[in-house]
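User: I'm writing a tutorial on reading structure tokens. Could you give me a worked example: one chain, its sequence, then its tokens, then a sentence or two explaining what the tokens reveal?
Assistant: Sure. Here is the example chain.
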Amino acid sequence: MKQRILYFIDHVYSEMNLDQNCIIHNKDWLSTQFDIRFVVRTNGPTEIRHRANFSIFRMSIFESYERMKDVVWDFRPDILQIFGPLYLGDARRIIKDMAGRCKIIQHYAGGVAEAYWTPDVDVLIVDTVQREAFSHVPRDKMVTRNQCCDIDFFKPIVSDYKFDCIMAGGFYASKGQDIIVDIFKDTPISVLFAGAQKSNTGETTQEFINTINYYNGLKNKKLSACFQDFVHPSKMPDIYNSANVFVWGSRWSIENPITLTNRSVVEAVACGLPFVAFRQTFQNSNFVKDGVNAILVDNDNDFWRSVITLVEDDSFRLKYSQASRQIAIEELDFKKWHDQFYMDLYGSILR
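And here are its predicted structure tokens:
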């Protein structure tokens, strides 16, 4: 009999968000190794979906906690894996109720480090570059893994470039789309802003409203900006490869004291894009490397100059592009840093 793993995300997800989550955590493959149930809160009605070899319980935000708890208990999981900080939904409550019944894993998924881990959690998973931010977690309760993506899926694709630059990331957590607009407003280049414009609850974020209003309100602007809302993950390789350069606008690290870990950054590296970003944001990144596949700068003028150089100098850009792809192959391979990581982790805690 397969051992049972239940994945629990108690915050609202659209169908496309949920599909993306299943893909990036490779539930299709893991479900061939384990018996998996996926429980998530959504805006829709409570229902059961089946994907590959596992079931998804989409539970309405109006469903009672007791009903949701019963769905978790009835599965009798060997492992309960929580995604997201403890203040979202009933995460802390379900951990407390399941303590002693199974092993409990919490997975860092963005936000401040202090919002993660309680003594009832057996293992906290964090990315390698984030380890220093979790000094409040006992060392024997924490495991680290590399950021990664499917480098056979996210890869360079020959295409006619439609944009000079792309910035991919949802309009929340001050990622700096407005800063990119401000830096290049008087420059005749094209920038694609790809990323969710709405929150998990379906409301347009204030950061998107502010950015689009700022761009539309500029007089005599030369910048050509395109705003692409959240799309299905299967379309993202084409979107990344439609631009020459990946840019990131935030001047400092938002999510933790170490580095930004937005998934789109990893995917863009795998697609062979050169980077321009502010130094403080990626100062300790193991896959955005200054002078190798990225130009990290300290001010807006250097940011502007670096992007223009990469856009106009094909041979210079190709050098950085090839370095990005090589870094992805060596350090970001999904098979090693996701599939093998979880097989080893689950095997060790289920002995």
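What the tokens reveal: The chain is about 30% helix and 20% strand. The chain has two domains: 4-148+333-349, 163-331.
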